[in-house]
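Sequence, please.
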């Protein structure tokens, strides 16, 4: 069943935190305007923007990016409408600013803009500055592309409407305990090479930043892709045929070498204090993996983050999979069964691979930007819909 802003409004009301600022009475109207504005274009430019429903008095005026928000109020407010959003969107860049609205007796009005800077994206996508400016616990609506809205309470995503499909979009898989456990042995091995305590956590932090960057770059390409992470002893898998396999030498272990160097030069107390050259080297590795994912087939790396190759085809006598489980919380304590008829070849292949290689992890990025982490939990193929992201 396809759903639209009315159902999105109902979901937002049902999940809105009790301690947050009250939702506007005109929530349905605001979402409806945002939804229809998403289909407009301004001189061939799509309307993409973020809205924040907050009173000007709620925001400090003595700061600005990168550490805080910068509110810029108009001398005269303007009516919230699809045409106004189309007119403002080129000036209020999606990644850096928000259109500020408030509810008045005359209805929702646009009172100005709020410059946020890009740290909110770096915190999601991986970057040196992982602490974004604090956001008020107010309604935020992201218009990412036609028909694609996400609704947040401050910085926390509550629900998303994408292509007529309404989903809860709240799971940041990177903060789950189970994901850290997938790499526990390899991190412990790396920690044994370091000269200070906390090396394992530092390796985890840097690795997460790299993977986040790779995922965000793949999502931005709108092509889709699959990254398969296997145990080191699985490097010659009977279930994976690498069209482009890299030679077994030092370059394919580049990221591991970087981790060792980073652990030698960076303290766990301040992981963001990373040498600029090392940070750029990690950034290049994430872009390399994202570029390899653009080719049909999967990128295959080990849990030691050796890049084995790309263009991988999933082959062999793999189990037949008719249904999988979707995790409804971070640790997979709440699960629902789903048949796989409604997903494409990329997802079905990943499910079959995990059924045959339960110690592997697959990260599947769809063309529409959705991200699934797939692994075996208690012997059953299980996926998590990874949430945070901009589009």
């Amino acid at each position: 069943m396809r759903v639209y802003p009315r159902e999105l409004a109902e979901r937002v009301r049902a999940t809105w935190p009790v301690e947050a600022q009250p939702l506007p009475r005109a929530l349905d109207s605001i979402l409806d305007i945002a939804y229809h504005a998403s289909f407009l274009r301004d001189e061939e430019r799509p309307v993409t923007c973020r809205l924040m429903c907050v009173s000007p008095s709620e925001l400090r005026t003595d700061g600005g990016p990168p550490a805080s928000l910068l509110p810029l109020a108009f001398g005269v407010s303007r009516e919230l409408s699809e045409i106004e959003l189309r007119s403002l969107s080129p000036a209020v860049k999606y990644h850096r600013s928000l259109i500020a609205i408030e509810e008045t007796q005359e209805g929702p009005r646009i009172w100005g803009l709020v410059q946020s800077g890009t740290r909110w994206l770096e915190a999601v996508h991986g970057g040196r500055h992982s602490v974004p400016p604090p956001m008020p616990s107010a309604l935020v609506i992201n218009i990412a592309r036609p028909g694609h809205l996400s609704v947040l309470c401050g910085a926390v995503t509550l629900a998303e409407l994408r292509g007529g499909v309404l989903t809860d979009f709240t799971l940041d898989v990177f903060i789950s305990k189970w994901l850290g456990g997938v790499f526990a042995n390899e991190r412990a091995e790396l920690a044994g090479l370091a000269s200070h305590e906390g090396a394992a956590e530092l390796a985890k932090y840097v690795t997460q930043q790299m993977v986040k960057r790779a995922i965000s770059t793949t999502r931005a390409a709108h092509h889709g892709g699959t990254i398969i992470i296997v145990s080191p002893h699985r490097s010659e898998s009977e279930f994976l045929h690498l069209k482009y396999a890299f030679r077994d030498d030092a370059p394919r272990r580049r990221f591991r070498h970087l981790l060792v160097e980073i652990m030698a030069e960076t303290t766990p107390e301040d992981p963001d204090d990373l040498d600029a050259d090392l940070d750029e080297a990690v950034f290049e590795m994430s872009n390399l993996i994202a570029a390899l994912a653009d080719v049909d087939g999967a990128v295959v790396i080990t849990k030691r983050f050796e890049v084995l190759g790309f263009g991988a085809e999933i082959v062999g006598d793999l189990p037949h999979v008719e249904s999988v489980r979707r995790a409804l919380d971070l640790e997979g304590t709440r699960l629902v069964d789903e048949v796989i008829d409604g997903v494409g070849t990329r997802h079905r292949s990943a499910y079959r691979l995990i059924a045959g290689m339960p110690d592997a992890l697959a990260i599947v990025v769809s063309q529409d930007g959705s991200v699934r982490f797939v692994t075996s939990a208690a012997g059953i193929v299980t996926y998590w819909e990874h949430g945070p992201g901009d589009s």
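The chain has ten helices and 19 strands.
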